[in-house]
Amino acid sequence: MNTISYKTISANKQTVTKNWVVVDAKGQTLGRLASKVAFVLRGKHKTDFTPHVDGGDNVVVINASMVKLSGSKVENKEYVSHTGYPGGQKFSTPAELFAKQPIKVVENAIKGMLPKNKLGRQMFRNLHVYEGAEHQQEAQKPKVLDLNTIK
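The structure assignment produced for this chain is given below.
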């Protein structure tokens, strides 16, 4: 066996193949859902994973309003936002966010598990979250992804 012939595969923007997948969040725990979706967005499930390249798949999350939080996080967890003005710090709980924008709860959890740089912001653009079961990405023919198969 000639070991010199083995080459390390390093993906780049031209060689990456991006697939479309659908994840159903109905009945899923928020943190476990977010970590597995971030894993797929980052591309770590692929054999040609390269840390400095956006090689992940495009992910469509449906039924975001039916995700569950364990324990007393619905009342005790706090999300902090800032308007940019002095004294503009705002606090909200998941219960308040679920009432107004259930999509934001899932997006915040997934965004927090991506890199905090330009690459992470580019990966976040590959995420599409919908409150109900219908989504607008039917034309891309996304495949259903079972989160239990991802380690």
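Interim note for the steering committee: The chain has five helices and six strands. The beta strands are 20-24, 58-62, 79-82, 89-92, 127-129, 143-144.
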